[in-house]
Design a protein that fits this description.
eleven-stranded parallel beta sheet; homotrimer; 5 helices; UDP N-Acetylglucosamine Acyltransferase, domain 1; alpha/beta; 346 residues; Udp-n-acetylmuramoylalanyl-d-glutamate--2,6- Diaminopimelate Ligase, Chain: A, domain 1; ten-stranded parallel beta sheet
């Protein structure tokens, strides 16, 4: 499959400069692109790479429009434009509708005739699978769970009973949706399990990474709103609510009953304690633990800066004595102040 | 299924105040409960919520017994009582005994006739599955592994060969029990694998969260004692021993050969280095790395406090200079002391 | 299976002292070994344990050769020697070649006749499985993925389409290789998915732990070189390159497009931000976030030292005021300097 720049611009907009009839068959980086490929320049800082590229065409911004003679498409958002060109050149493999003979589907499940249930997938009693959805190899869909339209579950995704997956969800292998939240009451020095009777409810256009886990609610539901993007190995505890279009990087843990706003961005291996509220449009740095609610949009961080181990060791030992250091400074200030006032008195 | 307060108290104890014949069919929070549901007040701080609730009945402590006119059950431990009421109102689905035709069971495995082996589960040679246990869809039980009585493995749990799972274990999807520990010897700048020949031995009444991993021992066993509760995405390395009734939150990593005491509580994303000993009744905060043995019960922490990114940046830079800051303070102290002694001499 | 020390030394080298005809059937620790087992002393610090052991024989270094009268093998690297003895005494179970009747293999996949495809495994279209490789129960091999010779995938490993697994790879259960990287472009406050069209290419003699995830490249490939050892629950993002013989402990996260050198060692729960370069022979401590490229071999750390919670709280509060503390010290220094210069003028 290949498209001319003219054909691409006709579908996706943008202004073509140079030879509009050149054909491109794939996307690539400026460094790796061949003459039948199209690359992109999203950041003017890398403008110098244009001179060395063997790319057949380039997507770039108005500001960089004249930085090359290559055939090019000018777009107000070159990176988003590139994403669309890539989707055009790399369409999802066509789904073969039907239930594989090695799938195991409950007799009272409802499978849309355009859906695909792959080999070794298991569909529980009363489950509903929507149009054009793919339930990959070895997936498990629990009883009464409802899967929307155009959902793509890669192999070995598990969804427990009574959950709701919105349209166009993509979930990657090993994701577990709807396992019991971690809820126990202490009685006589033993833990008593609290049945987890809430659900997981996921909106539209969500993506869930490999081996990410989203627990079902204890009493009420765990809720993931539209457009949320979750990377791999994230842990979302029971009754968390994640606002629309929030993106969370890998290995983040979010404790129970915390509410996260819309359009937040959370860096890798960050954590958020339970029962907190995070406002809309909050950015949290990697490795940062949020221990209090955040009521104001903005960027928050708590990263211990790394160094050579011997330097770190020399400095870190004082962290146990910061309070004492503070008192020593205060005492010095008081002594100096006393001297000054004595001098003034003289 | 519904019970009157009188019926509940007859089974679970507690003192009924108000109309003992009111029926409740489900548990809920004070905020969400309907008139045929029962909620609970475990913390007097939230006592004001009693006035607004539409709950049919409430479980509360002696101290709050008169804080509402609603039909109520008074208990010395309202949260544990609530857990029991919820278990009563939400019994586990009945297990259908037998081996599903799409399960694959080794001819020399021993399956109790009351156990359930679900579709696409695989049971290895010489494995033993105890009475009333459920091996969920897509689970794998390795050769010679022994599964106790009343165990519930949710879909896609993997247990390697020669492990022992105690009675009433609940394991959630994606849990991997008995994979090789991370053991290598270095020889001529290459890693040489050390066969991991120990087992994983798990006691009674343990719960293991989704995608949690517990490695088999290198030579001796990895041991999880009775009543331990593990949340999701926890990594337990080879030869770790976890004492009875310890609870560990999500994303914690515990390195090899560490022994953790009984009734400990470990916060999310914490870590414990290898070859350490942690005493009984130790609490470790989230995001805290324990790098030395802890011999005394109590609460331990090491969390870097978060702030606005510009504030954090301004402050964090000094972490690389704490030793220098300390020397500057010391020098100031010495100079002031010198001045004082000079003054005294005058 | 048992071997005499003479037989072992004939195969693996080393010098036998004492009775070379004693037979050993298993390896064990000095503490736990029985009289038909062989243990090892890798570190002279533990030499005192030799006197109490009931081990039948011991592997030790030249320096410790005379520290016991037990039959013994002297080696320049006792730990590596022990690894080899253990491999000799604990050979991998023999692989039964062939495709299990409950496996699902695409008609155009190429399966070497010596390979084993276990029950409920699924092999995609155009995939190639090399000689003596084992595809465990419930594994999924995507379309056109090429699996080398002597590869062992434990149950429930997922490999997406078009990936390459080198010879002798061992992957543990729950590992996911080749899922989509986390790549989105922002357009009008929504995330637009960027198709991930690169592959994962893995070299020879690699081991991948349980529930570890390695994402496919966005445009170019994600690359794991020969001899790399990855523990459990590690997240490797798209386009990461990991140099030969690097070892990474559990729960580490590595962000996109970062290149890690050869023979590095990365401690548990550490993290490395994206688009960085880490030199060869770098050691990174547990819990340390690397936020800048490292160009020099050596050891790096950033661990906040833990303490009793009340001590931690008292000290940590000052982290938000380090910049102010620094200014206070500077002011004190200036004032003292002023006094000194005044004195000089007098």
């Amino acid at each position: 499959m290949a498209y001319t720049l003219a054909q691409i611009a006709a579908r996706l907009g943008g202004r073509v400069l140079g030879d509009a009839e050149i054909e491109v068959a794939q996307v690539a980086t400026l460094e790796e692109a061949a003459s039948n490929e199209i690359s992109f320049l999203a950041n003017s800082r890398y403008r110098s790479r244009l001179s060395a590229t063997r790319s057949g065409a380039v997507i770039l911004s108005e500001a960089d429009a004249d930085a090359t003679d290559l055939p090019r498409i000018v777009s107000s958002n070159p990176y988003a434009y590139f994403a669309k060109v890539s989707a055009l050149l790399n369409p999802s493999p066509r789904v073969l509708p039907g239930v594989h003979p090695h799938a195991v589907v409950s007799i009272d499940a409802t499978i849309d005739p355009t859906a695909c249930i792959a080999a070794t997938a298991v569909i529980g009693s009363g489950a509903v699978i929507g149009a054009h959805s793919v339930i990959g190899e070895g997936c498990f869909i629990g009883d009464r769970t409802v899967v929307g339209v155009g959902v793509h579950l890669n192999p070995r995704v598990v969804v427990y009973h009574d959950c709701v997956l919105g349209d166009n969800l993509i979930a990657h292998s090993g994701a577990v949706i709807g396992a019991d939240g971690f809820g126990f009451a202490m009685e006589e020095r033993r833990w008593l399990k609290i049945p987890q009777i809430g659900r997981v409810v996921i909106g539209k256009d969500v993506e869930i990474g490999a081996n990410t886990t989203i627990d079902r609610g204890a009493l009420d539901d765990t809720v993931i709103e539209d457009g949320v993007k979750l990377d791999n190995q994230i842990q979302i505890a029971h009754n968390v609510k994640i606002g629309a279009h929030t993106a969370i990087a890998g290995c983040v843990g979010i404790a129970g009953s915390t509410t996260i706003g819309k359009r937040c961005q959370i860096g890798g291996s960050a954590g958020i304690l339970g029962h907190l509220e995070i406002a809309d449009d909050v950015t949290i740095a990697s490795f940062t633990l949020i221990g209090k609610s955040i009521h104001e949009a903005g960027s928050y961080a708590a990263i211990y800066p790394f160094g050579k181990t011997e330097d770190w060791r020399k400095n870190a030992v004082h962290l146990r004595h910061l309070d004492e250091m503070n008192r020593r400074i205060k005492k010095l200030e008081q002594e100096l102040a006393k001297q000054e006032s004595l001098k003034d008195q003289r």
